[in-house]
Amino acid sequence: MAALSATVLRNLSDRAYDKRKAAALEIESRVRDLVGAAGRHENDEEFRIDQVRELYDSAKSARSDIDKILSTLAKDYAMSAQSNFRKGGLIGLAAAALGLAHEAHLYLDVLLPPVLACFTDQDGRVRYYACEALYNMAKVSRTKLLEKFNVIFEGLCRLCADADQGVKNASHLLDKLLIDIVDESPSFPLDSFITVFVAHLALRNPLARNFLLGWSVALLKHPGVDLISHTPQVLEGYLSMLSDPSPEIKRQADAVL
User: Which residues form a coiled coil (predicted)?
Assistant: First the structure.
């Protein structure tokens, strides 16, 4: 049996959203079945010696099919030169992440790069679907996603000031989910993140500043994060916000300080 049927692959790049969505639902179901099959074979301790090879081969085949599906969605679709293929690839990756469920974090090195690359796509709908895909990945990976937080944060800071209102709305929902995930994590990789954060504090865009101040509040509230110890690094960025033309940004910056 092929990892994905020809019909699914064809519909995934169709101009009609309904066909792409139907293909995505099949991908989610297929990936979920493969994860279940691999898990059953890998965890089955009640077997005869003559079943060992069969069980091993079945689990290996299921894992191989998952790899093929993700590779196809990432390389042939999400990274395609054709926008409909990119849209379909992102919808497919979002669906695959849901199908992978608790195992999604094991595949982040494959799932994330094409999604983050699409954050800078010229097509607003592609950027929107990239947000949606990352939202699904974050939803199932939860705190394990924090290992990739720096690159995700950089992309999200760019999208919060996107010219497309739909993209801005989607990035806002993603932002809220990531703050919730950070809140539920007992720790946060601040030492590796602070350099990225300080660099972005120099941004002048009011939407970006609002985004950064929101994260400042979230990090200051986190019991496992000592942002105060990095005051010499972040102080200049906050002080510059006190002279921002927006009264609301001035107020937020003053509250953080």
Answer: none
Cα–Cα distance for residue pair 163/174, rounded to 1 Å:
17
Q: Which two tokens stand for residue 211?
A: 């985004």
**CATH code for the part of the protein at 6-185:** 1.25.10.10
Contact between 76 and 38 (Cβ < 8 Å): no
Distance (Å) of CA 93 to CA 75, 127, 200, 252: 11, 14, 29, 37
The pTM is what?
0.91
Identity of the residue numbered 201: L
Instruction: Enter the tokens of residue 130.
Output: 């990239």
Report the C-alpha gap between 70 and 73 in whole angstroms: 5
> Comparing C-alpha atoms, which of 221, 227, 257 is closest to residue 241?
257
CATH 1.25.10.10 residue ranges for the chain: 6-185
Spans in the chain with pLDDT lower than 70: 1, 40-57
